[in-house]
Amino acid sequence: MNYHNITHDDMNNGDGLRVVLWLSGCLHHCKNCQNPQTWDPESGIPFDELAKQELFNELSKDYISGITFTGGDPLHKNNLKEVYSLISEIKEKFPTKTIWLYTGYTFNQCILEPGEVVHSHNGLKLERQYIVEMCDVLVDGEYIEEQRDITLKWRGSKNQRVINIPETLKQNKVVLYCD
Ligand code: SF4
Questions:
Q1: Helices (H) and strands (E) in the chain, counts
Q2: Closest Cα to atom 1 of ligand 1
Q3: Domain boundaries along the sequence of the chain
Q4: Looking at the predicted structure, is the pLDDT value of residue 98 above 90?
């Protein structure tokens, strides 16, 4: 898994002050994406032990609310295994910190339907589901230039949603974190 940047004390990608991991790899190729340099999963540099320690060091600070995964797409197939284990470790070490994740996939594209059988073609969906279920907030969907709205909080276009994942899973319907 490669990444481009780690930003500290970030106020623009979720609630409070956050540490943000900008991962490589995205297949969505949205028109006028702000970070096309991240599309290639081989771009950036390998996410190594030093980068992980940088994240953990930030998360250990009282005033940091949590971590945001963005990019690129953290749910690009090349990132799934490492993002899963990284979030698992963060939840264990920093249980009070929140996890936000930005993806070009919609929530429904990441969650198996009731009774949907896992085949090889949707095995990735199940891997995405395991990650989404560990998040506090998911900002979902591609950026659609025609629906751009600069007044929106935490997202660029109207189709994207800021989803409260624990409530969504509890109520079995999409519950928004904010409008
Ligand atoms: S999903 Fe995000 S990173 Fe990927 S192309 Fe769309 S706006 Fe860019």
A1: 5, 8
A2: 104
A3: 2-178
A4: yes
